[in-house]
Amino acid sequence: MKVLVINAGSSSLKFQLIDMDNEAVIAKGICEEIGGKSGFKFKVPGREDYKLAVSMPTHAEALKLVLDTLVDEKLGVIKSVDEIGAVGHRVLHGGDKLSGSVLVTEEVKATIEECCDLGPLHNPANLKGIVECEKIMSVPQVAVFDTSFHQTMPDYAYMYALPYEYYEKYKIRRYGFHGTSHRYVSERAIAMLGKPASECNVVTCHLGNGASFAAVKNGKCYDTSMGVTPLEGIMMGTRCGNIDSAIIPYLMRKGEVTTADEIDKMMNKKSGMLGVSGKTSDNQEIGKLAAAGDERAILCEKMYSHQIAKNVGSYIACMGGTDAIVFTGGIGENAGKYRAELCEKLAFMGVKLDEEKNKIRGEEVEISTPDSKIKVFVIPTNEELVIARDTKEIVEGLVK
C-alpha cells in the first residue's frame, strides 16, 4: 500500500508519499505561502530537487498541484493517483473525545471543528486539508492527532488547579503536543534498550522551534510539558513557555496589552528566543550571536539549557527514575552543546557522555558511555512514518 501523508498548515501543505511495503519515502515536498507568493518544492530520493514558483490561491490548488506532480510524465513517481491507497492527515488537536488515530467520518470532522477553539492556528487548516482531499480522492482518510499519545496521562498530571467547573464546561486540561514525535522516539529508545516497554521509563526531549518534553512511564505517556495549547512548557523560538500568570493582568494595567488577541500574539509570536534576544527566533543564529559575544544571545542559551535541565530532572523525579533520555527535533538532533550541558548537570546521577559521539548531527546513536547509569540517545524523529503506519493499520482493518 502507498500512503500519502498530509500536514496542512494555515498557509502551507507538507506531504510525503510512502510505500508501506518497505516504509520507503517515494517523494515528499511542500507548498509554501498558499494564498500569497507561493512556492512548490518536490523531492525524490536520488534526483535533483524540483522547485517552482506558482500561484496557489487556496489549499485546493495546492493539493491538485501535489497530485498532478506525483503522476507527471517527467517528474512523477506513480502512474495514477489510484495507486494511493489512503491518506493520513496530521491533526493538531483531538480534545478528549479523540484519543487515538481514527478513520475520518462526518462525526470525526465535526469533533475536529469543535476543537478549533483549542487549536485555532492549526485545526482549521488540518480540517481544510481533509476536506480538499475528500473532494479529489475517493480513498480512506485517517486523522492522526498530536494530542493522542498523551491521553494516557493520569488525571493528577493533566488537571490544572483552577475551579473544576472550567474543566467540566470547557475541557481546560493538559493535552500535550508533538505526540507522534514523542511516540516514535520513545518506541525507538525502548527498542534500543532491549527491554519490554512495561519495564522502561524514558524522558523524551523534542527540541525545535517548538519544544516539549514527555515522561514515558512503562511505555506510556505519564506527563508532558505542553498544555491546553502548545504555548506551555520551555521557552521556544517565539513562545514564552511557562510564566507567572499574574504577569498578564499586570501588563494589562500598564497598557502594554489590552485585548485577548494582543496577549495571544505577544506570548506566541513575540516572546521566546526572539523576545529575549531582540533579534531572531532561530537557534542557530542565536548560537552565532552568542559566539560573537552578544550578551542577550548568551542569556538565551543559558535560559534554554537551564529549562531543559529543569524539565528533564522533574520528569525523572516524578517517574522515580529513568532508563534513558532522548533528544530529537531540529535542535535536539543537531545541537550537541545542549546535550552536553544536560549530561554534565546529571553527572551526579551517573550520566556519562561520550564527547566524540556527541559531535554527531541528525543521526540515531547512543551518545552516553557504556557505563553510564542512564542511557542518552539522539533519535531523529519521523512523524510522517507514524502517521503512515497508523493509516495503513486502520485501512487494512476495514477489509479484514
Question: Can I get a quick summary?
Answer:
With 400 residues, this protein is of the alpha/beta class. The protein is built from 14 helices and 14 strands.
Account of the 3D structure:
There is one protein chain. Helices cover 38% and strands 19% of the residues. The protein has 400 residues and is an alpha/beta fold. The strands form 2 sheets. An 8-stranded mixed beta sheet has the order 5-4-3-2-1-6-8-7, sandwiched between helices. The protein has a 6-stranded mixed beta sheet with strand order 11-10-9-12-14-13, sandwiched between helices. A hairpin with a 6-residue loop joins strand 4 (39-43) and strand 5. It is globular and about 60 Å long. It starts with a strand and ends with a helix.
Distance between the termini: 15 Å
What is the CATH superfamily of the largest domain? ATPase, nucleotide binding domain
- Which overall shape is indicated by the principal axes computed on the Cα atoms? globular
Helical coverage, percent range: 25-40%
CATH class of the largest domain: Alpha Beta
Q: Which residue ranges are poorly predicted, with pLDDT under 50 across at least 5 consecutive positions?
A: none
Largest sheet features = 8 strands, mixed
**From the coordinates shown, what is the CATH architecture of the largest domain?**
2-Layer Sandwich
* Total discrete domains: 2
Number of helices, where a helix is a run of at least 4 consecutive DSSP H or I residues: 14
- State the CATH topology of the largest domain: Nucleotidyltransferase, domain 5
Helix and strand run = EEEEEHEEHHEHHHEEEHHHHHEHHEEH
Given helix and strand content, the structural type is: alpha/beta
Strand adjacency order, main sheet: 5-4-3-2-1-6-8-7
Overall pLDDT score? 96
Give the amount of beta strand, in percent: 15-25%
- According to DSSP, the number of beta strands is 14
User: Roughly how many Å is the radius of gyration?
Assistant: 22 Å
